[in-house]
Amino acid sequence: MIPVLGLLAGLAVGLFLDPSVPVWLQPYLPIAVIAALDAVFGAIRAILDGIFNDKVFVVSFLSNVVVAAFIVFLGDQLGVGSQLSTGVVVVLGVRIFSNVASIRRHLFRA
Amino acid sequence: MTLLTTMMERPLDAGYQEAADRRVAAGLPRATSTRTVLVVVLAILTGFLFAVAAQSLRPKPTAAAAVKSELVTRIEALQERGVQQEAKVAALGKQVRDYEALALQQSGGGDLTNTIKSLEVQAAAVPLKGPGLTLTLDDAASTVADADAGNRPSGGFEEGRVTSADLQIVVNGLWGAGAEAISINGHRLSSTAAIRFAGQAIIVDFRPLARPYVITALGDAQAMQQLFEPSFAGVYLSQLTDEFKIRSILAGSDSLTVPGDSAARLEVAEPIGPPVGSSAPSLPGVQQGTSTPTRSPGSSNTGNTGSTAPPTSQERPS
Fold it and tell me: Can you tell me where the transmembrane regions are (chain A) (predicted)?
């Protein structure tokens, strides 16, 4: 419950402060969001599996975001940024769906 | 396929399982608490990231909307000013005509007044009142739902829409049926006015029109209706209604008004009497200064674009 409150607090702060993101950082935001979502759903599944570990969560979160952003950056430098972004979104999207399916099985037994 | 299988079967980070195994080996419970500082901090960070991303990636509607509303206010203000100026032009035009009539009377040319009046009527310089027909054209009902008045799409073609060619044919038909003066949506058609299009908008005398299109034609209502309906334009109009569901209502009335064309201005002027000390050949009718005007172009000194020449864009009854 406390992490959920933290999430809501972060949302509120972000909406309230409305910080301006530098233009060069903006292409990485969608990818970072997808990567963060993946880590969050992975953590929820781990909690339900009973094997949650805070350090693993933090490391997986940060590495997900950093690696995803790096792949997009590399793609931009090589001129295939949009294709690599698509690849990242597909891979992370599949993971999110699988994790959500597992969470669903835990919660609803269906 | 290994990649796909791994991705589909084990989406969870293997790290969770390994960490759990290590903790079990060390004699600790498998899972750590979800209420550690690290987790809470990361949760706050995640929420912040979501909010910032949503805020900065959402297209900013405020800036565009502000510009649009400002443009709308400016357009409306300028339109209002245009209407005021037009009324002023009409009033000043009437004043000028009064002065002209006065000057004409004082200089003894009173017999020209009637000529000038008739020429002004033909040149669409003065507002007129009298019996006539009102023909209302509107787009087919199926195309109206997605377009408000005056809000036509800039591209594409829909067969249920009234086009400028339809209006041209109908207006020509009305002239042919004996109309003496015609206005569309309050814009008087002078002999130099053109019905054209820009994209899907209909432009009459360089002013865009919004549906419905109300064509007011002064003349003998009954005779015009009898002549118009069997004519080419009348048949064309009924076919538009039958095939494309374009709505048209033809109604006669005893008292209609058409405004004057405020854009009328002097283009050609010639002295009506013989030039002093000149023997240049000119039109005999004009030279003698008789009270019966010739119907040739350029013989009027009414100060209007008009002349009585056949209109350029509409066919007039001969």
Answer: 27-44, 56-74, 80-101
